[in-house]
Amino acid sequence: MKSTSRKVVVVGTGFVGTSIAYSMINQGLINELVLIDVNRDKAEGEALDLLDGMSWGQENIKVWAGEYSECKDADIVVITAGINQKPGQTRLELIDVNAEIMASVTKQVMASGFDGVLVIASNPVDVLTYQAWRVSGLSANRVVGTGTTLDTTRLRKEVAAKLAIDPRNIHGYIIGEHGDSEVAVWSHTTIGGQPIVELIKQKDRLTVADLAVLSERVKMPPMKSSIENKQLFTG
Ligand SMILES: NC(=O)c1ccc[n+]([C@@H]2O[C@H](COP(=O)([O-])OP(=O)(O)OC[C@H]3O[C@@H](n4cnc5c(N)ncnc54)[C@H](O)[C@@H]3O)[C@@H](O)[C@H]2O)c1
Predict the structure, then answer these.
(1) How far is ligand 1, taken at its centre, from the CA of residue 63, in Å?
(2) Cβ pair 80, 11 in contact under 8 A
(3) Residue 85 alpha carbon, nearest atom of ligand 1
(4) Is 178 one of the catalytic residues?
């Protein structure tokens, strides 16, 4: 049976898992948060750190390092377990190790009697989401991958930095794989309501060549932050 509170389990308490956990707590989206990691000490440490910051929040959220059996009454299980990319490595190159981890984690989640929604972030995310769906036996609408969400926010950030405007005024999407074959849908990208292609026709602040550079920066983000981006997000 589902818990009456909003309960989420995060499997994998590395960079991605802890960012997701922090973000959910900060936004008051949940009442209970369980952290699971093959490295139990890491999960314990992250749970304690999150609890330490809780007194500043408005919500009373319970956070603890737990077991797979606690997925039973969770609404959502987020899976971020796995290895991440080294410089120069593609996401697809992670598949051998991460596919095994995904299968093992999904089986343990399902063995608890879990009956909620699975959210997959581990890479290569599209392939692993398919695998989690196959292994879990859940219906397709209950196994969701993060897909190109990150790439889409990067696209908006890159266009915003190029034109020196607020990224919230940019509407556009990256579609396809969260990986090297992804595609920027420039034909449906607008800036303050104006199609980006119109801006190019005006030969004002953007060229077709710029779009190619921007797409590439979304696919292969620079390894260092820049002052241009910083200025946009302050104030
Ligand atoms: N979908 C996206 O947009 C996106 C963005 C960034 C990273 N990622 C992917 O997310 C994954 C995690 O990235 P990260 O930067 O947090 O890595 P990380 O190394 O910081 O954390 C991974 C965690 O998974 C744990 N883990 C490994 N095997 C496990 C298992 N069998 N069971 C439980 N926990 C296990 C590790 O102990 C570690 O704490 C990677 O595959 C990375 O490529 C996805």
Answers:
(1) 20
(2) yes
(3) 43
(4) yes
Name 230's Cβ contacts closer than 8 Å, sequence gap at least 6. none
**Nearest in space to 178 (alpha carbons), one of 209, 141, 208, 144:** 144
> Catalytic one among 178, 186, 189, 199?
178
Q: Whose CA is nearest to atom 3 of ligand 1?
A: 150
Q: What are the tokens at 208?
A: 């077709």
Q: Domains of the chain, with CATH numbers?
A: 7-145 (3.40.50.720), 149-219 (3.90.110.10)
Asked if 117 contacts 76 with a C-beta cutoff of 8 angstroms, the reply is: yes
What pLDDT is attached to residue 234? 36
- Enter the pTM of the model: 0.92
State the average pLDDT for the chain: 91
- Cα of 220 vs centre of ligand 1, distance in Å, is 19
- Cite the DSSP H helix spans in 57-180: 95-111, 125-136, 149-163
For residue 225, pLDDT beyond 80: no
